[in-house]
Amino acid sequence: MLIHLKLALRTLRQERFYAAINVTGLMIAFICTLLIGLYVFQSLTYDQHTESHKKLYRATIDLINGDSHNTFALMSDAMAPTLALQNPDIEGYVRFKTLPEKPIVSIGEEKYLEDAIFGSDSNVFQQFGHQSVYGDPSTALTSPTSIAISDSFNQRHFSGENSLGSIITVNDIDYQVTLVFSDVPGNSHLKYNLLFPINSPGFIPSPANPVMALFTVNTYTYFILPETYDVQKFSDFFDQFWEETTAEVLGDSGISSSMALTPVADVHFGPTVEFDQPTGNLLTVYAYGIIGVLIMLVAIVNYINLATARATRRFKEVAISRLLGAKKRSLIMQFLYESIMQALIAAILALIIIEIIFQANAPASLVNALDLTSLRTPLAITGILFFAGILGMLAGLYPASWISRQKFSSRTVTSGHNRTEPILRQVLIVFQFAVTISVIASTILVLSQMYFISNMPLGFETENRMVITVKGASAISRVPALKNSLNSLPQIESTTFTNFDPGVGFSAGNWRIESAQSQMENSFMSYQNADADYLQSMGLELIEGRFMSPDDENRTVVVNETLVRTMGWTNPIGKRSGMPGSPETQDSEIVVGVVKDFNFDSLEVPINPLIIRLTRPEYYQSLPDSVAPHQIARLTIVLSGPASGQLIQQLSSTWQEHMPELPFEFRFLDDIVASRYTSETGIFNSLSYFSGISVFISCIGLLGLTAYTTERRTREIGIRKVLGAHPRQLLGMLFRNIFVLILFAAIIASVVSYLSINAWLSGFAYRDEINLLVFPAAAILTFCLALLTMTLQAWKPIHRNPVHALRYE
Amino acid sequence: MIIRTKGLSKLFRTEEVETTALDGVDLSIQEGDFTSIMGPSGCGKSTLLHILGLIDNPESGEYWFMGEEVSKYTERKRAILRKHNIGFVFQSFNLIDELNVYENVELPLIYTKASASERKQKVEYVLEKMNMAHRTKHFPRQLSGGQQQRVAVARAIVNTPKLILADEPTGNLDSEHGAEVMNLLSGLNAEGTTIVMVTHSAEDAAVGSRIIRVLDGRIVSEAANV
Ligand SMILES: Nc1ncnc2c1ncn2[C@@H]1O[C@H](COP(=O)(O)OP(=O)(O)OP(=O)(O)O)[C@@H](O)[C@H]1O
Ligand SMILES: [Mg+2]
């Protein structure tokens, strides 16, 4: 009785430790799995929040010119109404017309650049499933100067109050708020805060000629068609339409066009097209899904290993007190009951902690990427708890069935003999190690790929480069003076003036260019417009000729190596090029130099031919009044080091002197570049957290595993000690088994993670080499972890009086 | 004098209860003695044997083992003494389930770094003597209680220790096998091995040269067998 009591109490104390480990491990796993699950769920249900999404198709247009073929997400705003008149299948359409550049939005004193703004059709709220917070959606966009704002915009600028009737100024035109609509869900590919009518005065008028009007690209277009519509039928219809409509204008120019429809739910993971919103990468979603499942599996295996260890201990305790029969059954029940309880507690704690994380200071990348509302519904919570209960039961099943298989009379003859661990346990142990090793190895490889991509030499400098938008021809004409003032500041190395974001911004169009045979040819080309300081400010490398100079009389251009190669030029200097158009200027641009290739486009595509054309602020002076205010350019300031608050202050006041009508809003080039590679940059950062967590959970698992293994052999340790074993020999004995299992696990893990990482990497145009050393390194790390936890666990039985270990039954 | 204790005590403490397993045991054992310890169950016989065998330490009192005061020795120092001098037969055998009979018996020789041929010869010799030579490849679970006990005895004597501590070595044996074990022990004793044995059997106790009776953790009587 005394021994029994003593054992029971001792067990209880140790149970507390095990219970804490169990619940913590499960809880962390639940947190990760829920967040990852939420992310995967939201990714896979992009644009599916309305019933009507099945009838919604996004149109893209192809521009085909000879060999060049470009697909655009934007098309003419005139396209949808024109097509709707001719195709009875079209039940309706919703358009989102873009402004040529981020407009200046001012509310009262506040002034800033907004990019989530479109001109839209009045049925947008119904088709895209927006509820009204204030105002009537059906009449909201009737007046050309009305504007609808999102709930969160209303929260930010009108502190959530009823703002109907308030004035918002966009590019100097006043609009009146007529609607506050519920926010665009986070998993919508097109996001907007402000919508005004598509016929608002803020847009440049389209060409009057109805055919010419079709050639502009400015509008995202969504058609409402019957569910499961045959999109090929639509493409065929478009081909015919295009043929009939444009034959006269295009003649045999070789320019043609086609249109494709994508169900709106497929847009997010569809192919990237020009001018598209950021698209998702299914590979990333899968990577997350796998990590989520792995984390959960690791946690469950942890649980099973720990629970079995405890079962061994408690079973013997019961056996010692010789309370057989009923005790056994109740112990089994108790196990199931306990593991279900622990899983539920872990799940509840996980939900609470997720809520706290999001309420408190969550990393912005996490909050922006995930929308908790779908997790907060009673259905979701019930589902999660139910799921947790099932998991708990599954996890408790093994230890419970283990107990039921045990015979109490361990000292009497039992049939058969198991010299080693039962097979299932061996499998669990190998699985646990394999997961730990592959989690560590894959984490290193995934992070190294991300590091590789983010440190890919782009071919131009991105650090400490401040990019500011200059809007309107009159402001642009003041750039030279501004540049002078800025260049005289000590912390400023140089400044450069461009049309687009420096380095990464470019335009593409039909171009005239001199062939190797000195013939002028039409070709689809990418181009950047920049001033003479571009080379130095961007750190580009000139490999032939010279860069454009401010003293150049004509418009000079510099091309990249790829262009020289593509054109087959042997002597690029002096070649002619130009924009197709008026005969007197079209071939006037002369190549003066060649720059080394740099990645001006996404790293997912190979480098294309590029023309860098000289531009000067003065070019903007002679523009007609209709287009002058819409002109946009960039000024890039190269700083000698990281920007201090004081410097920004100084820059701001210099800016205000020259550009009083424009806000001083800047972005850093490295941020612009980073945001281009994937819409999930933030998520990628969190990948490293998750991997760290799964490694941590794996370590907890190792602790449990080694605890069990050592626990099982405590008595053996005692016996061997009495027989004269040295502590070193005992540790060696414990490790030998584990070593074999780890070796086995390492082989499995290496093969599996090599194959999966390799498959994942093949989705990247630029991929890091897989360093094979990662696998043995991960295995060694895992082995060391196992060694450490084992030594800690075995320390007591090895160094205490052997009698303690002997009594351990 | 191989063993001399003075006021040896052992207490087992749990949160609720304190058990005095040994209460001031004074005991002297000469080299070459064959001592039997008798007493009712729970009186502290095994506890005494554990302390004498250096696998547990006393609460208080003094213990000279081969002239060294060992009661305050660390486990490390005790281990060294144990390894070369003491063979232990446990009441519950304490064979290693994962090792077969041969391997179990071989273990002490491995830890004293005997050569392979020496090990083979010694193991085969004791197993022969214990009548277990035909079971060398069996695992403990495949043996009867008596067979396990004989393996445990074989393991204890294989290293020819100076002192053998045996906790009810005939407890599970029929009279024939019991007699064999006793013969073996008295044979070893005749060759000079000191033996301390716990037993409930008066007959077996009579084989020794001396009987000590224990009650509630105290030695109540000592009688020399003549
Ligand atoms: N680890 C322990 N914790 C608590 N009490 C213990 C412990 N070991 C032994 N005891 C107690 O000490 C006393 C002596 O135990 P011991 O095993 O020495 O008895 P014994 O004389 O060998 O009995 P038996 O003839 O049944 O083997 C008993 O009352 C026992 O309950
Ligand atoms: Mg006993």
From TrEMBL, chain A:
<feature type="transmembrane region" description="Helical">
    <location>
        <begin position="427"/>
        <end position="452"/>
    </location>
</feature>
<dbReference type="GO" id="GO:0005886">
    <property type="term" value="C:plasma membrane"/>
</dbReference>
<feature type="transmembrane region" description="Helical">
    <location>
        <begin position="378"/>
        <end position="398"/>
    </location>
</feature>
<protein>
    <submittedName>
        <fullName>ABC transporter permease</fullName>
    </submittedName>
</protein>
<keyword id="KW-0472">Membrane</keyword>
<keyword id="KW-1003">Cell membrane</keyword>
<keyword id="KW-1133">Transmembrane helix</keyword>
<feature type="transmembrane region" description="Helical">
    <location>
        <begin position="285"/>
        <end position="306"/>
    </location>
</feature>
<feature type="domain" description="ABC3 transporter permease C-terminal">
    <location>
        <begin position="290"/>
        <end position="406"/>
    </location>
</feature>
<comment type="similarity">
    <text>Belongs to the ABC-4 integral membrane protein family.</text>
</comment>
<dbReference type="GO" id="GO:0022857">
    <property type="term" value="F:transmembrane transporter activity"/>
</dbReference>
<dbReference type="InterPro" id="IPR025857">
    <property type="entry name" value="MacB_PCD"/>
</dbReference>
<dbReference type="Pfam" id="PF02687">
    <property type="entry name" value="FtsX"/>
</dbReference>
<feature type="domain" description="MacB-like periplasmic core">
    <location>
        <begin position="20"/>
        <end position="198"/>
    </location>
</feature>
<feature type="domain" description="ABC3 transporter permease C-terminal">
    <location>
        <begin position="690"/>
        <end position="801"/>
    </location>
</feature>
<feature type="transmembrane region" description="Helical">
    <location>
        <begin position="335"/>
        <end position="358"/>
    </location>
</feature>
<feature type="transmembrane region" description="Helical">
    <location>
        <begin position="772"/>
        <end position="792"/>
    </location>
</feature>
<feature type="transmembrane region" description="Helical">
    <location>
        <begin position="20"/>
        <end position="41"/>
    </location>
</feature>
<dbReference type="InterPro" id="IPR050250">
    <property type="entry name" value="Macrolide_Exporter_MacB"/>
</dbReference>
<dbReference type="InterPro" id="IPR003838">
    <property type="entry name" value="ABC3_permease_C"/>
</dbReference>
<feature type="transmembrane region" description="Helical">
    <location>
        <begin position="730"/>
        <end position="752"/>
    </location>
</feature>
<feature type="transmembrane region" description="Helical">
    <location>
        <begin position="687"/>
        <end position="709"/>
    </location>
</feature>
Automatic annotation (TrEMBL), chain B:
<comment type="similarity">
    <text>Belongs to the ABC transporter superfamily. Macrolide exporter (TC 3.A.1.122) family.</text>
</comment>
<dbReference type="GO" id="GO:0005886">
    <property type="term" value="C:plasma membrane"/>
</dbReference>
<dbReference type="InterPro" id="IPR027417">
    <property type="entry name" value="P-loop_NTPase"/>
</dbReference>
<dbReference type="Pfam" id="PF00005">
    <property type="entry name" value="ABC_tran"/>
</dbReference>
<protein>
    <submittedName>
        <fullName>ABC transporter ATP-binding protein</fullName>
    </submittedName>
</protein>
<dbReference type="GO" id="GO:0016887">
    <property type="term" value="F:ATP hydrolysis activity"/>
</dbReference>
<dbReference type="InterPro" id="IPR017871">
    <property type="entry name" value="ABC_transporter-like_CS"/>
</dbReference>
<dbReference type="GO" id="GO:1902495">
    <property type="term" value="C:transmembrane transporter complex"/>
</dbReference>
<feature type="domain" description="ABC transporter">
    <location>
        <begin position="3"/>
        <end position="226"/>
    </location>
</feature>
<dbReference type="InterPro" id="IPR017911">
    <property type="entry name" value="MacB-like_ATP-bd"/>
</dbReference>
<dbReference type="InterPro" id="IPR003593">
    <property type="entry name" value="AAA+_ATPase"/>
</dbReference>
<keyword id="KW-0067">ATP-binding</keyword>
<keyword id="KW-0547">Nucleotide-binding</keyword>
<dbReference type="GO" id="GO:0005524">
    <property type="term" value="F:ATP binding"/>
</dbReference>
<dbReference type="InterPro" id="IPR003439">
    <property type="entry name" value="ABC_transporter-like_ATP-bd"/>
</dbReference>
<keyword id="KW-0813">Transport</keyword>
<dbReference type="GO" id="GO:0022857">
    <property type="term" value="F:transmembrane transporter activity"/>
</dbReference>
